[in-house]
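Shipment paperwork, digital attachment
Item: protein structure file
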Amino acid sequence: MLWSLAKIIIFLAAVAAMAMGADYLLQSSDGIRLEVMGTEYTFSALQSVIGLMVLFAGFWVALKLLSFLLACWHFFAGDPTALSRFWDRKRERRGLEAVSQAMMALASGEGKAALAKAEVAASKLDKPQLTNLLVAQAAEMAGDRKKAEETYKKLITDERTKFVGVRGILKQKLADGDTDTAMKLAEKAFALRPRHVETQDILLNMQASEQDWSGARKTLSAKLKHGAMPRDLHRRRDAVLALSQAYQARDAGDVEQMKEKAFEANRLSGDLIPAAALAARGYIQSGQAKQATKVLKKAWEVAPHPDLAAAFAEIAPDETPAARLKRFNLLTRVHAENPETKMLLAELHIAAEDFPAARRALGNLVETEPTARSVTIMAAIERGEGASDTVVKGWLAKAITVPRGPQWICDACQHIHSEWTAFCENCGSFDTLSWRVPPMAEVASPTGMQMLPLIVGALEDQRVEPQAEVVEEESVKDVTPTEPPADEATSDNVIEITPSGKVDDKPSSAA
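Attachment content:
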């Protein structure tokens, strides 16, 4: 600090002296006369300026010599790098300036300029952990992937930068679609930095995509251990992975493994509907009907779902419709105003052939929240109560135009799935499927489809109207006073409608 202050004072004094000398030269027409020990020296103005420049150069050389002497003194005092620092000081200053310019170019998105400055910095500085990283990132931005990969490999050789090198090559392999190499690199990066959140997520997604559910659960436990995930979220996602293990075991025919993982998934997250349904079926296979009922009732209390009702029906598959209606009261009395509960109760009454009760159970659902399922139930009720084909066909036609109702939808990309999965088949997001109504109609109904109920009704009216005329004609025949022949009185007439719309009477033998 004191030496820096002394240099600043000396520099300012030199500048002041130069200013005073310049002022004196401007005021003097004869130059400069110096008297040294009785001897007088006279210099012209040009000679005076040259002499001052030489004096300044000598002063600069004296400073450099003094710095060199100080470096030598430090070297002999025990600092082995004092002389090398003295010679490399200017080189290092230029290298640091190149680093600064390269970082500014990276921040600005100028890949080629950043690469050029990074290479200058690498040639000036002896700090490969810094310059190699700059070169690799600049090469990636500039599109020179070969140079970037070569530089990342250099980073791997240094323990201080090994993780950075592995992570850089990992991203390149992921971009190339080389999943096998990427998996190994992700495992290596995770071993080097188990706390790194991005590496945890990459490894977790890759393990899940390869259906390595056991490895994915270990990675998830590491996220919890290192504080990268809340405990409640960990339980939920661990349940999702355990359920995926159960599905995998079911597809492989391992029933016992399927039951074990399904029970574990249901224990970790009781509101996970697919886990509850699969666990209940596992209990049913084991003859534990009470436990299956308990699991399904708990999940139904969270959110009614048709899969839960289907599993609940499997507990007693051979029961009568009346007995099933009574047993299902355990579910239908919970969330009685929920549309799913109303439709379930209506379907149970239809199975028991109690159509007025089914209509009461369905309520005004077809007017307030019509869906394909509720409208189809209404068509079944109308058919059961003896309504005409026109009415039934009208309801069935309407079922084509109304929304399908709640479905498994990805919260990230809004993609609709036919069944629940741990990962979205469209965007690959993990644990983002929820049972809900799509934000907008999944199928745009054209005008012709909206007119379908009216068209069906009109066609039915055309078919029924001639029959009415025939009945009227028959009634007229019946009141005719003339008696028909005996053979004709005992024969039945068959009335047919020709394509032209006329009514023909034919004997039954011809029919």
